[in-house]
Amino acid sequence: MKATQSPLFGSVDEVTERLEGVGYLASTAVATTVYLADRLGKPLLVEGPAGVGKTELAKAVAAATGSGLVRLQCYEGIDEARALYEWNHAKQLLRITAGQGHESWDATRDDVFSEEFLLPRPLLTAIRRDDPTVLLIDEMDKADVEVEGLLLEVLSDYQVSIPEMGTVTATRKPFALLTSNSTRELSEALKRRCLFLHLDFPDPDLERRIVLTRVPELPQALADALVRTVRVLRAMELRKVPSVAETIDWGRTLLALGLDTLDDDAVRQTLGVVLKHQSDQVKASAELRLN
Amino acid sequence: MAVTTPEHGLPGHLVDFVGALRRHGVAVGPGETVDAAEVVGALDLLRRRELREGLAAALLRRSGQREVFDTLFDLYFPPALGVGAQEIEVPRATTEDGSDGPVDVDALRDLLADLLLAGDEEGLRELARAAVDALGTAGASGTGVQGVNGQPSWSAYQALRLMSPETLLARILDAMRQDGDPTDDFTDEVRRREIRDRIARFRKMVQDEVRRRTAEQRGREQVAKTAVPKQAEQVEFLSAYAEQLAQLRRTVHPLARRLASRLAVRRKHAKRGQLDMRRTLRRSMSTGGVPMKPAYKTRRPGRPELVILCDVSGSVAGFSHFTLLLVQALREQFSKVRVFAFVEKTDEVTHLFEPGAELSGVMQRVLREADLTAFDGHSDYGHALGSFAEFWGEAITSKTSLLILGDARTNYRDPNLAVLRRLVGQARHAHWLNPEPKRQWGTGDSAAHRYADVLPMHECRTAGQLADVVEALLPV
């Protein structure tokens, strides 16, 4: 199953470079899987804790390749009509009333189920676009199991079957990216169609660079101390470990408070920025001898 | 990648690798193998890290499988053969004839300390490689460690004992303090943990390296059989060591979330089917008496009270702890949870599991604060059941589900079946979760079969099994 269109990226290094160009610092794992997803024409399923940049990755890929981003935000109870397409009932009724009397029923029926009365939703939109497209299906795990079945056709063959009209096949395969917080297991059938990327917290060097790109005013040494402390916090058994987003927030907070070293006073004041549970804060303070 | 290869070549090797993954409980289908082959074709094989990530993307489907994958990948796609490229020289004691003498351990430790201080990951990896090689072939001065029959012998234990990186901690911390950074308790603590983490990683590098060299000598299948870590969900509670249990505890919340959402699906499906005649007819009024939209009965989820009676004696503590954490994480599914712990006697420990309580150290608190022992601290099921019935018998009502956790090893004391039978009779449901393998039930001092006559007993050796049992027991 080779993609007929020319791939977006030429090599793994090019992925890293171009993503960096739009402000997304990718690890080897990210760059490799993005490259492969593009090359093999397979959707990419990204799983990982909140705040490590899953959604950001899709946006960055879209920006780096100049593609349009089509986003399907999943939630409990999302259905076909919200994800794929819907018939514009009101308009169909108007059309039928307008045609009454001077048109045969057969002609009306054929006309009513045509392109004009179709309301495309994200999945169909992404399939029908001629320009390069990144299709982001966000928080897949929030959607019900039934929706997964609906996605299978879209993700494996890049086509949508509309009973009244026929099958719409993609002229240009979108780069599909699914994210999941793994609140539930996605079905095997869906997983088998995707490349799988577990996006974890970045290594210290990468995280330092991420913090510095996001908060450029932050002094090097402070960023260094910040990242080291966050890593220590992550190693503890906490209810909610701080993610990259929290590290960045912490950097901004320290900057706003005009603190230039991360000593125990500074940490005591600002621990709430990184740890969002009272019990976590108590535990961290005790273990890091802040009291 | 058109490379002429011998008979099985790269595809054959890939299939071997997939086979090894399957043997270690990672379900990889033929479809994934084909994907992996495509990945191999699309990537530059000389870039090992990219190959590793690429294969992981094609072959793995869950995050918990990564550790198994990494270990096997290192065995099947080793970074080097033999000694590999040496960038770090291991210091050696000088001999008269100028040949390589035994390793100078002190100088080696100095080198290690410098690298740990700098946090130089690549350097540490090189050092691990060089040190394992040198200690395996030449031995250290004065120890006489040398392979039998001229065969070098690789031993992580030997290498780590000689270098003993843990003892370098104080020295590295001193060196850091002299660098003039602020020295308050907090900075100190952060540094200490950081260095400890680096040391742990160095240990792992040495172990990986030893595994690689051993695999070269004895065949990788042999090494893979013993050296590959188990996935957290497949670790047996009774044989798990502290580190595995800690890792297991981290999986409690994801597991609980998964169970809760599966339950939600089950509830939704269970709701369907039962037609509510009254509401359907009422609704049909608006469509002229034609029932266009049938209404269904919604069942309210019954939220039972849960009473947990758990053995916290040394042998099963890991299992009890994990199960309690899991139940605690699922407490929204129950209207009330009461927890009782026992060894020889029973005591209520519900207050230690209050929401917001710090749960990771809760087992120590249970053992410290609750009144559990009478004579020798060995579990006594009969007496524990007796004291539970005596003091907290009223906790069991017709709304209660009773859950007993333990291995049913009575130390040859009276199992007190009469009391248990009475408790089970009072409760709405009663189940026993036993972390022992089924074939060991009833052997030695185990009263498992006798208890199993009174109430259903489930085998819960691993977190995976426990999750299945708990899911089946949860109310719909």
UniProtKB/TrEMBL annotation, chain A:
It holds the Pfam family AAA_5. Residues 40-205 form the AAA+ ATPase domain. This is AAA+ ATPase domain-containing protein. SMART domains: AAA. One of its GO terms (molecular function) is ATP binding.
